[in-house]
Amino acid sequence: MWGFSFLLYWRSLMLKLDAIVNTQQIFENTPSKVATHYHLARHSYLSLTEEGRLYIWCGVNEAWIETQSPLHEEGLVLNLCALASAGVSFAGLHPCARCHSATHNHIMVGRDGSVVLNCLSCGSVINVWRDIWEGVQKGAQPYTHVESRLS
Fold it and tell me: Which UniProt keywords apply (predicted)?
């Protein structure tokens, strides 16, 4: 669980950054209250039920469609509940530019749309600006890659 000091630190970082992700639009366009995640790369809303079933929103049919693909486990997926309540969502991993850790450098998206790379191995914090966002997206890895490396 994050400490209060970490949240204050995070918010102070976010005040200085430009919005990279339009989180306001993501929240405003949420198709229903059952949406739990937003896939940044696919521009799709996801709904993960307590039973573990995953649905993707189909804008054409305006309906939730069950999917067998674990889209919520891919990189660049926002947890809408965490973003709304804590003001930040982990969105995957990216290799650290400083210590080269591939398993401890988190892509973090703030409620205001700002993005930070935060490495828990070396303590490096990199503010993501628009000119490097494309590279971060290309290098984003899901957390499932960490689990397979550790086992």
Answer: Plasmid
